[in-house]
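Let us practice reading a record.
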Amino acid sequence: MSYGKPEYIGASFGNMYIPNVDDKVKEQIMDVLRVRDQGENIIGLCGTDKRVEHSVKTTIRRAERDQLFQNIVTATVTKKPDITKIQTQIGDAIETAVLLCAKMKELQTVLVVLYDLHGRLNLGEIGIPFGEDHNGCKILLTSTSLEVLSEQMKVHKLIQLPET
């Protein structure tokens, strides 16, 4: 006779559901995205690439379902960021890279997701308005490095996915 663990995190037993750690993290992200004008416009999500990507995709689906933003745009940064490529990825989703900043300011609410940061990135140089420039713009940055998010990007809210 073999005995398993008494509780399975993320499993359901009859009417009882025990949330897993990722569910709690996704809820943290959603809570931050729902808040307006609280100085938490730049959110950092740190963890392994696959877990971060899964969490962000789920978050985006929920944000779309709850209609939290007029527009949600994503771009991948990579180790050597190509500012023009990032502008084009975001700009194509909104309109054009040349009008990126102006167009983003026209939107009351926008979520910008930048995947895979490896170092400091100048958001102003890309044309992403935030803070006092645009309170309705939330920026979700992902990285495998806590230092990149906390020290180099100085995110307002840092959420770390636990190791599996």
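A brief commentary: Residues 1-19 have pLDDT under 50 and may be disordered.
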